[in-house]
Sequence to fold (464 residues):
Amino acid sequence: MSRIQIGLVDYGMGNHASVVNCLKSLEFRCKISDEKTILSKSDLLLIPGVGAFPTAKSELHKRGLIEYLQHEAKLHKPIIGICLGMQLLAEASFEFGYTSGLAIIPGEIVPIKEPRWHIGWNTLEIAQEDPLFKESDGESFYFNHSFVYQGPREYQIGLTDSMKSFPAIIRRGKTVGLQFHPEKSQESGSKLMKRLIEGLCNA
Amino acid sequence: MLKKRLIGIVLVKDGWAVQSFGYSKYLPLGKPECVIENLDRWGADEIMVLSIDRTRKKLGPDFQLLRSLGKLGLSTPLIYGGGIDSVQNGIDIVRSGADRISIDSMLVSDINQVASLAEQLGAQAVIASLPLAILNGNLNWFNYRNKQLMDFSEKLLAFMKEGIISEAFVTDYRHEGYPQSFDEDLIQEFPIKEIPLIAFGGLSDSGQISNILNRNQVSAIAIGNFLNYKEQSLQLYKESIIHHTLRPSIYKQSYSLLDYE
Fold:
C-alpha cells in the first residue's frame, strides 16, 4: 500500500465508487469527505464529477468547499479534477447559462458545437513536454461530455480530436484537469493515474 | 479520432442474466456480476445492463445490482437501464456507479422528466431506448408495456433533434437474439439524422456489423447473446470486424505469470 493519501472531494455529484476502486487497485489510500479537516490531511485532492456544471457549483458552495479548494491550490497542494471536476477548475461555464467556477486555471467551459457530444474512446495527443503524461501519448481514453475547456494554450497539455481539436488535459502548476475518465479507461487510465498521482505528490 | 464502440449488453430478469429471444423467450446465463466482469476483463468499450422486468413489476431501478457492480471495481464505462421512473432515480443510478442511463418507459409516460434528467446529469448521460420495427413499410416504435405499436411523439423527435438526448439505442426487438437478422432499414429510416445511433438486436455477423459501423449516424453497435457462446468473444469480434475506427482488442492479463513457477 502506498503512503500517498488521496482526499476524494464529496460534493454529492457523481460516481465515487469507480474512482475509489481505481485508486485502491493502484494501492493508494483514499478518504471520501466534504470535511475540510479530513481533506486537508490528504496528500492530493481529487474532484470527481458527473453531471451539470451549475448543480455541481451549487453543491460545492453549500459545503463551503469553493474557498477551501481555491486556498489549497494557492498553497500548491496537488489537485486533480476529472471530467466535470476538471471543468469546475476553470473560471466559468456556459452550461445552462453562465456560472462562475473555481478559477484555479484561467479559461472557460463552452459547448461542443459539432457534433454536440463527445462520447466514447478517443486518442490523447500530448501537446506540451510534460513527463507526467509523455507515456500516455497516443493512448485511448473514455470521454463522456458535451462541454469543453477553452483557454490559454499554455495550460493545454493534452489534446484530443473530434471534428475539431480540444483540450483533454489542462494543467497549472500542481493542479491538473482531465476531461476524460481515467477510472473508466481500463489499463491506459490506471497507468496514467498512477504516474500522475505519484508525479504530483513527489514533485 | 473518436472511435466507434462495441457495447456488451447484459439483460437481467428476476435478478439473473438471461439470453433473450425477441424479448419473449429467455434462457438463464447466471449471475449478472459474472457476465459483466467478463465483459470488463475482455475490454468492452461500454457495458450496458438492462434490467428488463423492473418497470413492468414497478420495482424501480436495481440498486442492489448497481451496488454489487460497484464492488467489482469495473474499469469499463457502465450504462444502466430499467425501472427508471423519476429524475431522482436517474441521479441515484449515476451516484451508484453508472456513467449513463438508458430511458425507456419514461419516454412514453412522462417525457418532460427526460429534459430535467438532462439538466441534472448532462445530455451526454441520457440515452433513449427505442424498440423498433419496420412493418408495412413504416417505422414503428414498440411499447413493450402494452404490446402496442406507436408513432414517435413530436416531443421525442424534438428532444432528439435538439440534443436533450445524446444517443438513441435502436433495438430490432423482433430479431433480438436471433443471429444475423438485424434489419438495417431501422437505421436508414430513422427519422432524426442529428442523433447518433447505437444498433442492437440480431447483430452476430462481422460483415453486417462492419457495414453498420460504416454508416455515419451509427456511433456504436451492441451485442448481447452472441457474446456468451465463447470465451473472449468480444476480442474475437473486434478482430473480425473490419473497421478502422474501432478500438483494438485488449487481452488483459489479470495474474502475472511470473508469480507462478
